[in-house]
Amino acid sequence: MIRTQWIARWLFAFAGLMQLPHGVLAQPQEKPPLPDYLVASIPDAIERGKSFLLRTQQRTGTWSEGGHKVGLAALPALALLECGVSPNDPAIQAAANFVRSQVPLKEFINTYEVSLALLFLDRLGNKADVVNIQMLAGRLVASQTYTGGWGYRVQYLDAKQTKEILGILTKLEPAPLEHMLAGRVPNMNNPFVKTTPIADWQRKRTYKFPKELQYLQPLPCFTQFGTTKMADPPKAGEAAFVDPTDNSTTQFALLALWAARRHGIPCTRTGTMTFLRFHTSQNADGSWGYPYGFGGAGGSPAMINTGLLGMAVGHGLVKEMKLPDEPAVDEDPRILHGFKALSAHVGMPMDTVKDVPYPNMYFLWSLERVCMLYEIHTIGNKDWYRWGAEALVSNQDDMGGWFKKDSYPGAAPPIDTSFALMFLKRANLAKDLSAYLAFSPKKLNDGVIKLAPPPPVVVTAPPKPEPPKVVDVKPEPMPEQKPEQKPVQVAEAKPEQPVTPKMGMPPMQPPPGMQPAPPPTESGMPWWIWLVIGLGGVLIVGGILFFFLFSGGGGGGRDEEEDDEEEDERPRKKAKNPRRR
User: Which pTM does this prediction carry?
Assistant: First the structure.
């Protein structure tokens, strides 16, 4: 019984693991360690930056001495909150009161400022700000254009109009985002996702506008997907939703609307249109440009981050609606090629915090925001945080802030300092979107590395032969030639020198016995060895002749004497024999 319960528990746990979203158990990307010189200097840079913002805030709660007062109240206050300043701090409360006072004004219609105000109030976390957040979100929703982006202004809505628009959007939900994500929508091409379109990709849900609300019917957020041409007008129109757009204002509006979801704002259709914008405008190299262009338009380093944000929103909405996520985030070629294009604009750390060039703060903040969203610590083999942190620590001024004039449009000390602080703190303004994505950052970065071109093969040309150097060579002195020692002759007398014969005369020969000693042979043996060999040969031949000559005569005489003695013996024997008879 106990064993049966134990097995049942393990099966139940295994079944639960199988129900987890794709990527929950995937391997995270390893976070590179920081060198000692940054570990010590980054906290100090953050504290000095916070002190700079707290000292330079105006009495009204903003950091602006001129225009864009709401934006320059919301952004620095948002950065201070990300750096750990309490929401109850007097500086934060002064900024919040100033922002709240501007929300109802009809003049408050700048897209950047509306978006930053919404992000700040959401981060502040005061429940009393829900009405203000909804009003700001309604203006953004009503101002989205047919290309899925935003221009520089939004449509003003009061509280009643905001409620009406949000109510209609709720009745029109959901959107066919899973087909767009998979690239199955006709005439909505992307250079990296091309699948067979399907005919019934639309979810047609009609809504009959009451007479008092028919003025809202032309808004792009209420139209049927795919029924209008995705193209920006050449100039601004009467309403904000027909203004030309750019991807810079679009990224602020998109971040703000994702935050508005936490307060009951229906943003599925809005997010779907924005995803479709970036799906259809990605360039062949994986980048995105500043303006919208169907099929791609130009290229901008900072706008690559905006395009990757749009891709993340599409995947996050699909998972939120529990629709098929195809392709997965870490396998989506649009995202992989986007990060590949982004890596080309990220430098390598210089291993120093001295004399590092001043960075583009707007690009750094956009880079940090998208890398924290995807939980990417390195892009390819580039440590983006270490690279940026070195530049920020190196360029912080004596007052604790950051600023370089004309480094990007609208640059100012409070803006640069806010971007720098959020980079150093690794702020993530869309943590819930990161949770929805649920993928493997390591697998994603491995895919980016595979797309990177191989390092160029350096072919070293063979060195050209150098011309011969002219060197003055002094002739070496000839060694003194010693007279060759002539071999010693057997006879003390020197042999006669041969006389060169004249023409017609026989050569003269030296007398016998006066032959000169044989010259040394090629083997190099001394002359006296040959002399000994010659004499030995003469002695051997002479001895053999002597032996035959003298041994022949003596032997014959000896035989005759022996024969005579034998004959003398015979008569004696015969004489003795008769006696015996």
Answer: 0.74
